Structure to design on (226 residues):
């Protein structure tokens, strides 16, 4: 069966520090991979998605970037965090076809101080 | 632009008191409507996919239905462990063979013993 791992679960970082969140998927090949941010009262916002190694699409201009160095690895990064980057970050995967649901990891709660 | 509206925002039920959650949507070319359950501090957990009007899916005390404009999540004789936020999402083509998922803001369900 497929599993998705996301870490760390919580993170407190000072403004201006770098960020690296990692997500890996097991039990499937060539998945679509996604990074979402969830803010209270605003729902789930798609940040990045990837349909293959090295292929990244950005949905929202921001202080963040994403990379996919391996088929089942997805990384969310920032060179300098802003206070507004605080939030709950979720990684997800899906099979490569329309009508397939996304499967989410357990998220990272990021607090920028 | 695809839109998903969930109502009510919050719902308190007594244990055993059946009710329904609503998900109204506007989308061009629906590929699927998804229901998720999200517990505090966790990622959304996939529940159901509905593809066409008239379709129904059931799992334990939950039953999801779909019309051309809305979906309902019926909860029969709920228990306290059904307390969670329930999210609805619609998927539609976004061009170049890719698909976009639009989430509602969720309904927070509380079941009181």
């Amino acid at each position: 069966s497929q599993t998705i791992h996301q870490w760390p679960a919580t993170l407190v970082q000072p403004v201006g520090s770098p960020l690296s969140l990692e997500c890996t998927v097991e039990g499937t090949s060539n998945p679509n991979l996604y990074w979402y941010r969830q803010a209270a009262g605003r729902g789930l916002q798609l940040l990045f998605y990837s349909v293959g190694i090295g292929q990244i699409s950005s949905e929202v201009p921001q202080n963040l970037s994403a990379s996919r160095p391996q088929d089942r690895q997805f990384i969310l990064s920032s060179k300098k965090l802003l206070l507004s980057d605080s939030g709950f970050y979720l990684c997800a995967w899906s099979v490569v076809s329309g009508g397939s649901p996304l499967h989410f990891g357990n998220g990272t709660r990021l607090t920028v101080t | 632009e695809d839109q998903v509206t969930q109502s009510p925002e919050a719902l308190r039920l007594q244990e055993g008191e059946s009710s329904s959650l609503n998900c109204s949507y506007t989308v061009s070319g629906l590929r699927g409507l998804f229901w998720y359950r999200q517990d505090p501090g966790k990622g959304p957990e996939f529940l159901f996919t509905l593809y066409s009007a008239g379709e129904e899916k059931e799992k334990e005390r939950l039953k999801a239905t779909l019309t051309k404009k809305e979906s309902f999540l019926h909860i029969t004789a709920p228990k306290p462990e059904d307390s969670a936020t329930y999210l609805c999402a619609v998927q539609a083509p976004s061009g170049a063979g890719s698909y976009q998922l639009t989430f509602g803001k969720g309904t927070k369900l509380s079941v009181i013993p």
